[in-house]
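Hi there,

I know you've been waiting on this one. I reran it after we fixed the sequence typo, so this is the corrected version. Both the input and the resulting structure follow.
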Amino acid sequence: MSDPILSISGLSKVYSGPKGGGVKALDNVDLDIREGEIFALLGPNGAGKTTLIGAVCGLVRPTSGTITAFGSDLASDWRSARARIGLVPQELSTDMFETVWRAVSYSRGLFGLAPDKARIEEILRSLSLWEKKDSQIRELSGGMKRRVLIAKALAHEPDLLFLDEPTAGVDVELRKGMWEQIGALRDRGATIILTTHYIEEAELMADRVGIIRKGRILMVDDKASIMQHMGSTEAVLTLAEPLDAVPASLAEFALTLGEGGRSLIYRGGGAEETQGGNAEVARLTKALIADGIDYTGIDIHDSSLEDIFVDLVSAREEEPA
């Protein structure tokens, strides 16, 4: 496997408080990003996502740790590496009275690149902004403004692109369109790191997922591996007659009673189950029939990435920061 395009080691950031204390925004973060992947960083508000991005992009000075991008240490050789990094910030920070064309062209010039009208046109057309090229940014909708931020970040043709909440405040239709555009960027060779509150976004697009809470990385893994090792199956079986307790003959299954004994709830599956949760539910239904327990309905739900995320973050809530 080739060397990572971005390597973060032991990264910490402490913001000093007024009385000498401090807030630890990042806590000994280790993270490697592979070339050509889409990596989703998930975490609740205040988890450290934006601080981590800011540290890589030169907006935040780390307290300790190292960041290496494209083989260069960003602390000592930042200029060449950061010229290959693009950032789409969470906030709409741009001159609202500037036209779309001038704003995007200016961003290209900031990195010392020669004007390239053909390239700017290509970017604007790919983001459905070409018809708005002469409009002032203040005249655009929220979704269009966010597309302008993406266009500005792409103007200097970065190899590594950070998207901090790229679809925040964007309606569902525009959000799906932007997902397609982000996928197209990866297809053209860009490596993409995105933070998002929309876990559906990560589940749909990401190759790997990292979960961060209180400045600590809780886990990083391929999306499929997370679903396999941490996923589960929940089945609710509505009973024809209520039960007072789970029968001893069904003790091998992870069952609880619900709705005053009128339903049986199964939760299991995941990596430890040889055949998976759905196979266990099939065995359970056969066991119910064998025991003469009739049921009138069954609702099966396999956990999503959002379920796993909520469970993982909630399980750490009582841990010290």
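Quick highlight: Residues 172-187 form the longest helix (16 residues).

Best,
R. S.
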